[in-house]
Amino acid sequence: MCKMLCVRSSVLRLGLGFTIHHAPQIISRWPGWSSRVPCHPCSSSGQNPSGFEPSEKVHRIPAQYKPSKFDKKILLWTGRFKSMEEIPSLLPPEMIAVSRNKARVKACYIMIGLTIVACFAVIVSAKRAVERHESLTSLNLAKKAKWREEAALAAQSKSK
């Protein structure tokens, strides 16, 4: 499904240098899919041919985000704040995103370390098993011999 944006205001500023002026039109994400207006970077369809300065001022209001308990723990773990009391009630979403990414990287490093420790533990355990002359083949043969013996005893008790 093609994501399209219907423009109804006089000025629309998009990321990557897209600026559209004074035209109700449809802008497509993929070139050639829009039936009315081709959309090119740093182009405009109206009064300002340079495309860099809009005719009206565009004010950006920073969005605020109320962190959950888990977000607060992540902010503490990543070192953004020293205690729970220091964390404000509203934070920018970018700060939460950066903290989540840092926590993700830390968790990956911890998992890598645990994997390496587990590998060395398996190596040590296998060397000890070799010293005791234990192998999977000998364990399986002993288990099957035990099963045969139990089956023979069960058959003998049924025949009596």
Structural notes for this entry:
The chain has 160 residues and is mainly alpha-helical. Among the domains are: 50 residues, no CATH class; 54 residues, no CATH class. A two-stranded antiparallel ribbon has the order 1-4. A hairpin with a 5-residue loop joins strand 2 and strand 3. Helix 1 crosses helix 2. The chain starts with a strand and ends with a helix.
Task: List key phrases describing it.
disordered N terminus, 160 residues, 3 helices, single chain, two-stranded antiparallel sheet, mainly alpha, two-stranded antiparallel ribbon
Write a concise synopsis of the structure shown.
With 160 residues, this protein is mostly helical. Helices cover 45% and strands 9% of the residues.
How far from one another are the termini?
76 Å
Compute the gyration radius: what is it? Answer: 34 Å
Based on secondary structure, the structural category is mainly alpha
Largest sheet: 2 strands, antiparallel
User: What is the residue-averaged pLDDT?
Assistant: 76
**Strand/helix succession:** EEEEHHH
Shape: elongated
Strand adjacency order, main sheet: 1-4
* DSSP helix fraction: 40-55%
Q: Note poorly predicted spans.
A: 1-9, 33-44
Q: Can you count the beta strands?
A: 4
Number of helices: 3
